[in-house]
């Protein structure tokens, strides 16, 4: 991490590209990820068994895989946004010279979450959003596309969250970066459905105005 971000404290605000997350049912909420994974199992005929003779460990691992897969997909959306932000920064004379790296935007999201983003998550009932964001970024550094069940070891799935936390910590230390003050950057957060709706509204307004 670089020494200071004082150069941004000048009252200027940059509007970053919108952050668009693809919804997985209600799977964005940390408290409901396991419930969502269980629901997915039920839909595939793999409901958690009442019969103790059934392989409960296998069912638990498949539930963990459902969580792991959802976080990989969240991470994929986050990295797409981070790279869009890097492109945005490269086109701004001040930002291009500020020592900004991908880690700067990851740090902004996780550790310096813009108030608009935090409020959006909270409006969805997502309290533990920082952990979801950091683990998504950590996992996607190794799994840009979620591998099929059976490719990832059972040992990894059983404790994937610990690996994800370590992977995010590693991601943030591989290169020095400038931390970004949240008050200097505007970020709008949408689900993909919401964003498509806003685009459709804009097109309709343009057509009616023409």
Question: Can you tell me about this structure?
Answer:
- This protein has 210 residues and is mainly α.
- The model is unreliable at 25-49 and 201-207 (pLDDT under 50).
- It has one domain.
- Helix 1 crosses helix 2 (56-90), helix 2 packs across helix 6 and helix 4 runs antiparallel to helix 6.
- The strands form two sheets. The protein has a two-stranded parallel ribbon.
- The chain contains nine helices and four strands, in the order E-E-H-H-H-H-H-H-H-H-E-E-H.
Largest sheet: 2 strands, parallel
Structural class: mainly alpha
The low-confidence runs, each spanning 5 or more residues with pLDDT under 50, are 25-49, 201-207
Total number of helical segments?
9
Radius of gyration, in angstroms, nearest whole number: 19 Å
In short:
The chain has 9 helices and 4 strands. It has 210 residues and is mainly alpha-helical.
Secondary-structure blueprint of this entry?
Blueprint: E1 14-15, E2 19-21, H1 30-43, H2 56-90, H3 93-96, H4 102-111, H5 115-123, H6 129-140, H7 154-158, H8 160-173, E3 185-186, E4 189-191, H9 192-209
Parallel strand pairs: 1-3, 2-4
Helix pairs in contact: 1-2, 2-6, 4-6, 6-8
List keywords for this structure.
about 210 residues, two-stranded parallel ribbon, 9 helices, mainly alpha, globular, 4 strands
């Amino acid at each position: 991490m670089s020494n200071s971000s004082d150069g941004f404290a000048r009252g200027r605000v940059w509007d970053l590209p919108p952050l668009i997350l693809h919804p997985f049912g209600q799977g964005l909420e940390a408290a409901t990820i396991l419930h969502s994974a269980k629901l997915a199992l039920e839909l595939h005929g793999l409901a958690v068994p009442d019969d103790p003779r059934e392989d409960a460990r296998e069912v638990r691992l498949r539930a963990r895989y459902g969580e792991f897969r959802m976080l990989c997909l969240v991470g994929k959306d986050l990295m797409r946004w981070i790279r869009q932000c890097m492109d945005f920064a490269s086109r701004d004379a001040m930002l291009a010279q500020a020592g900004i790296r991908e880690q700067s935007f990851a740090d902004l999201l996780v550790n310096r979450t813009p108030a608009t983003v935090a409020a959006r998550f909270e409006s969805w009932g997502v309290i533990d959003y920082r952990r979801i964001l950091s683990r998504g970024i950590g996992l996607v550094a190794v799994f840009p596309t979620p591998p099929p069940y059976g490719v990832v070891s059972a040992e990894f799935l059983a404790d994937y969250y610990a690996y994800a936390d370590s992977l995010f910590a590693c991601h943030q230390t591989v290169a020095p970066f400038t931390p970004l003050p949240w008050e200097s950057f505007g970020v709008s957060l949408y689900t993909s459905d919401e964003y498509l709706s806003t685009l459709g509204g804009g097109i309709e307004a343009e057509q009616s105005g023409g």
